[in-house]
Structure formats: structure tokens, C-alpha cells
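[Target chain]
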Amino acid sequence: MNDLKEINIMIVDDHKMFLDGITSLLKEHSGFNIVASAKDGNEALTKLTVNNSIDVLITDISMPDLDGEALCKEVKRKYPDINILALSMHSDSKSIKKVLRNGASGYILKNTGQEELIEAIQQVAQGQTYFSEKVKNNIMAGMTGTEEDDDYQKIRLTKREVEILKLIASEYTTNQIADKLFISLHTVESHRKNIMRKTKAKNMAGLIKYAVKEGIVE
């Protein structure tokens, strides 16, 4: 017997062919229940007033009237328990940063395969974050080299911790970080633990999301 709860999903996209296609694809998965679909953000918000029992809202970014960024902001303001997965053609760090800052928990590209799409939905439904590989790479590529003191104070990390966070996100090993910053391995590990504790991140994706939301990336 399968006791797993179905994941209630709303899909928002202004391209009908894509909307119909992804709806049909997800309906074939026994763990998903497509509650509603909408062609733009305004229609999505209207439908949520009728039924907001949604676990995951999958939304495009570029839409007329009310785009994905604005939709994320409104949904998280009115329905904070709904988890949002952005599904877009745009892979630049600025587009990614905008929706993450407004409440999205995941970001994948429209050329994503079926298996990764299903995994992303399942992760986001559980309150986790999910980014496709290209999205993660582009976020890392958008890391800035400097930040103002006010920014460091805002995110509660020291300058050194921000520096180490950027190196961690750029896939530097502990040894490489120690060599680059001329500090001991023990010091790197101590900073790493402090960063994880302060950001409450559980993994690399969580650290990236925190960095994006707090303005550490372009």
C-alpha cells in the first residue's frame, strides 16, 4: 500500500502548447495531482482564491500582465506555505536571483528532462531547494568579487565568511581555500561551520539560495 500523499500542483505558463504538454506529462505520474493551470500570474492568483490547497506552484518567468517574479512575491505573501518552482528558458543569474529573492525554492530550465523535473517537484514539495546544474553554474559565475560593509552586516556574515562562502560556491576544496587565503585548514573548517549555522543551510543548494537572496551574487 502506498501511503505517500499526492503532491498538489498548479502550473502557470503563457504558452498553451507548453502548458498542455507539461500538464499531460505530470498527470501520468501517480504521485502528482494537477489541481489547476493558468496562463498568467493574474489568472493563477484568481484560481488560488478558489482553491489554495497547492503544495507546489510551477511557474514560468516571462509572462504578460503579471510575470513570474511578481507572482512569486504575491503567492508567498498570501500563501506562504505554497512552495514555488520556477521553470524558465532564462538561465542568467539576474533572472534567477529575482525569483529566488521573491520566494521561489527552485529553478530549472525548460529543456530539463522528465526525470529531473519530477525530482525538482518532489524536492521543492518537501521544503527543499532545487537548481538544475546549469542554473547552479550560472549563479556561481555571477558571484561578485566585492561587497560593501553594509551588505555584510545585513546578512550577518563577516567579510571573511562571505569570502569563504563565495569560494565554497565556486567549488574550491578546503585545501584550496586555505592556500588561497593563507589560513589553516582548521580555520577554514571553523568558518564553514559558522556559515552553515548562520545561514541554516543544509547543503550547497541552500548556501547558493542564501547568497542569491542576500545579494552576494549579481
